[in-house]
Specification:
seven-stranded antiparallel sheet; 8 helices
């Protein structure tokens, strides 16, 4: 297998990825309404764009390697990988990433034209994404549009271990991430209402 990164192409692999992700989130629930399964009760937030950055990638892969987990999945939730992407490119916008892959290779892959359509490279195409690994002790859902990523954990112990692999300022409370956005962007009432909904969904 080696240091690889690949799109999922078969319906069988799609079904498997869906099943894995479904143990972490409900696939039909929007980030705003907290898609995490009930046993995920610990949440932190971060800036969405970090998902693609070197430091975040290094933290994530360090955590995986320390726990002898050899790959993670980058799963595009929106646009729906079965409709648009598969229809045009005969593969799904879901990527299996080997934990030993370099960040350069990860970035290059996500920036690759999937087939005569450079605007559909995943860094442009993916609006809402999930990142997870098969053992499902953690899961990330991120929205490019809302500029927030949310990571959920089942156990305090795993959260501590995960966060220790990153720079100390990466993960903050959901409320704190949203108020940072408000300070920077002078948000509309609509967006503020969405933010209130998010806070409510993850604390109740």
């Amino acid at each position: 297998m080696g240091m690889t990164i690949n799109f999922i192409e078969s319906a069988e692999d799609l079904a498997k990825a869906k099943e894995e992700l479904s143990s972490i989130i409900k696939l039909d629930v929007d980030l705003i309404y907290n898609p995490f399964q009930k046993d995920f009760t610990i949440f932190k937030a971060f800036e969405f764009d970090r998902i693609y950055g070197l430091n975040f990638y290094k933290g994530l892969t360090d955590f995986l390697i320390k726990n002898r987990i050899n790959e993670f999945t980058f799963y595009t939730l929106l646009p729906n990988p079965e409709d648009y992407f598969h229809h045009h490119f005969a593969k799904y916008s879901i990527v299996k990433v080997n934990a030993n892959l370099s960040h350069d290779d990860f970035w290059d892959f996500l920036d690759t034209d999937p087939g005569n359509s450079p605007a559909d490279a995943l860094i442009f195409n993916a609006e809402t994404v999930a990142l997870y690994s098969k053992e499902s002790s953690w899961g990330i859902v991120g929205s490019k549009d809302l500029e927030i990523g949310i990571i959920g954990f089942r156990e305090e112990k795993v959260q501590k271990e995960f966060i220790r692999c990153f720079d100390p300022n990466v993960f903050v409370s959901i409320r704190s991430r949203l108020s940072d956005l408000d300070d920077m962007l002078n948000l509309s009432i609509d967006t503020k209402n969405i933010h209130e909904l998010i806070i409510k969904s993850y604390t109740d």
